[in-house]
User: Fold this.
Amino acid sequence: MLVNKISRAFFWLVATSGIAEAFSKGHDLSSVAQMEDSEGATWLTTSGEQSTIENILGTGGMDSVRLRLWTAEEYGLNYTLSLAQRFSKQGYKIYLDMHFSDTWADPSHQATPSGWSTSSVTSLANTLRTYVSSTLKSFHAGGVELEILALGNEIISGMLFPLGEISNNEFTNFATLWAAARAGVSDAVAAGVTKPSVMIHLNNGWDKATLTWWFSSLFATGKVATSDVDVLGFSFYPFYGTEATISNLQASLNSLASTYNKPMYIAETDWPNSCSGVSLSENYPVSAAGQTEWVQEIITTVQGVKNGAGVFYWEPGFINDTSLGSSCSSAILFDVNWNDWPKTQATALSSVNMYT
Assistant:
């Protein structure tokens, strides 16, 4: 579904008028081009008609697309910019998630890119600042203006290990590096790039105590000011501990919203449609209907928080990695038929309509 010119004009008016922005309903579609190219994926609607994944999800209420960016070739600049252009041209808002690594970055893995100097924090900070600025200029030159920019992915333990790792409550090196990334954004804006909303993205959005400690410790360094951060984003998954309840999420978000008065996003979430032997944090059905119920409850929760701003479902079309990092067998939003390999058919489940 194309977002028409009137809708795009509305998004622009909202962004420039001081009116509270529309609540974002998005999906992370980072793997889509890989699935189409390497797995021969074609996308079918719930009624079996061939379409594109963005049209299927757009009809289901998606207005924003999240894309990850790695520093190596896979999910690198050329790949991710091309996808951003594809979705942006159709009117979808783009949220860029910079991993600052050649591969997956998460709480346990934040490897410094190969080729980046680790001789000192100062040297690494300079490289990072230049990289962020150059990346934003490339997206701008490619016709893509970013809505949201996450500087790091799930950076609860820091980033750019080992220099930027947080240990023994020592945030100084990490804060120096994050501030350098933020300075790279300012450099790009000074060169004519439209400023995106700069996000800090952490995991376990339900964990009020840890998140309270983390933000307090970061800002206490004096190297990062609260004004440097525009929005807060959190991962919230039901697979990794039974404490990840809706009520704990609500309490955590309410506390952070009260303290920092920032727009709040659930940057990543999933719910399984097929799963056994895993203790989930809530009792929604393990089905497409359960996927919809879980996400709609999160939406209700985030919308009830001061400055609640949006929800993003993680990788609904990752057809060759359907567990999506969990111990469940599938949390994607498509049923995959491999019988005609190397051509693959991915038929939408009813949960593609979770945002309607």
Q: What stands out?
A: The two ends are 13 Å apart (CA to CA). The longest strand covers residues 308-314. Confidence is low (pLDDT under 50) at residues 1-20.
